[in-house]
Every structure is written in C-alpha cells, then in structure tokens.
Amino acid sequence: LKQKLKPYDNPKVFELGCGTGAFSKYVLNELPYLDLTACDISPECIKIAFERYGNHRNVKFLVSDMTLDPSRLNVFDVITGNSVLHHLPVKMSLGYCFRLLKPGGSIMFFEPNMLNPQIAVEKNIRFIGKMLQNTKNETAFFRWSLKKILQKAGFKKISVVPFDFLHPIIPPKLINFFDKAGRKIETIPILKEFSGSLLITATKP
Fold first, then answer.
1. Torsion angle, alpha carbons of 146, 150, 156, 160, to 10
2. DSSP secondary-structure letter at 21?
3. CB 133: neighbour CB atoms within 10 A?
4. In this structure, what are the phi and psi dihedrals at residue 25, rounded to the nearest 5 degrees?
5. pLDDT tens track for 84-110
6. Which secondary structure element, helix H or strand E, spans residue 185, and what is its range?
7. Which one-letter DSSP state was computed for residue 141?
8. Of 165 and 128, which is predicted with more confidence?
9. How many CB atoms are located within 10 Å of the residue 113 CB?
10. Distance between CA atoms of 92 and 98, rounded to whole angstroms?
11. Confidence class of residue 56 from pLDDT cuts 50, 70 and 90?
C-alpha cells in the first residue's frame, strides 16, 4: 500500500470494512500523512476504532456501507480492505469501488484463496465453517474468476497474486522461521497457488 501511494502528495484513501481499526492502525502508522476515510456497518466497531485511532489527523470513521453518497464519487486515490470482499456481493461491491475511485485510482484488497485446502473445506462444508465461526454467506475466491469480475467492472492493470502461508496456530517463537519458509514457497509456481490469501490490485482507467 505504501508503494501504491508513493506517486500522490496528499492521497485520499478509503478503507472498506474497517471493523475496530486493526488494519487502519498499520495504515496510519506507516502513512500518517494520508487522508483516510474508513467505514463499517457496525456502530459498535466504529466507536472502538474512533476511540483508538480517531486522534490521527485527517482520519474519519463512518458507520456506513461502501455506497456512501453520490457526492463522494470519483474522489479516492486508493480503496483498500483486509478480508472484507468475501463477506459482500463481490460484483456489486467492485462496481461501487470503481465509481468511488478517481480516474487512475487503484484498489488493493487482501482476501482468502479458495485453492487453499483449509479455506476450501471451511467455505464449502457449512457445518465445519460454522464451527470455525464463518458467517453464513462468506466465501473465498479463485483468482482467475476474480480477474474476470474485475475486467467486467471496468478495471485495468489487474493483478491477483497468491501469497501467505503463515497460519494463525503457529507458535510465536516459530513465526520468523515459517514466514521465511512461506515466502520461498510463494516463488514456486504450482505450490504458491495453494497459499492462504490473494493480493488483489487493479486500476481505474
């Protein structure tokens, strides 16, 4: 995200589904100069996010969905979100993203990869997903089908890259080792397809 925002002097960023601000925290720490608008449909989450990070300059936390209002069309340089699109109707959501972006603006999302064995099981066998606290309608994505959706929405320079083999159950002392191992696997053509996440970027012409 930092690389994506380098060309802008005063970037306007929209974070979709910010929750209590877990991802917002890292964005603001790395890029304190940006103009961040973050939204979530949960008033409780937005209250917590505002209490934690509302003292940053140029940050707004809103109880809203991504549609916002017509005056906000074509205003953002980058729209981002961490594990949010798979909870939403993705075609409609990416269409809204396209309308909210300025010409030349970009999206950057991090989403679950349906080719990952664990993710495939929990998203397709509902009782297992329920035990793992999946919500009723959430899903995951195949990268080739997601590319087609992005193309139909009007995006160009589309990239959907598999990454991330670092599993949440790995003990803290072993994270560094497994992170390095995972990054090596990410460079191996067939094995990388089974990673846990997809990095999604695309640009509005």
1. -20
2. S
3. 7
4. -55, -50
5. 999 999 999 999 999 999 999 999 999
6. helix 175-185
7. B
8. 165
9. 24
10. 10
11. confident
Long-range contacts of 103-106 (CB under 8 A, 24+ apart): 103/74, 103/204, 103/205, 104/203, 104/204, 104/205, 105/76, 105/77, 105/78, 105/79, 105/203, 105/204, 106/4, 106/77, 106/78, 106/79, 106/157, 106/201, 106/202, 106/203, 106/204
Residue 205 in tokens = 């012409």
| Nearest CA among 72, 86, 71 for reference residue 17 | 86
How far is the C-alpha of 184 from the C-alpha of 94, rounded, in Å? 31
Q: Report the predicted TM-score, pTM, of the whole model to 2 decimal places.
A: 0.91
Closest CA relative to residue 15, chosen from 47, 34, 69, 152: 34
> Could you write out the DSSP letters of every residue in 74-113?
T-EEEEEEES-GGGS-HHHHHHHHHHHEEEEEEEEEEEEB
For the chain, the first-to-last Cα distance in angstroms comes to 19
Which runs of consecutive H residues, i.e. helices, occur in 31-74? 43-53
62 closest CA partner among 45, 86, 82, 74: 45
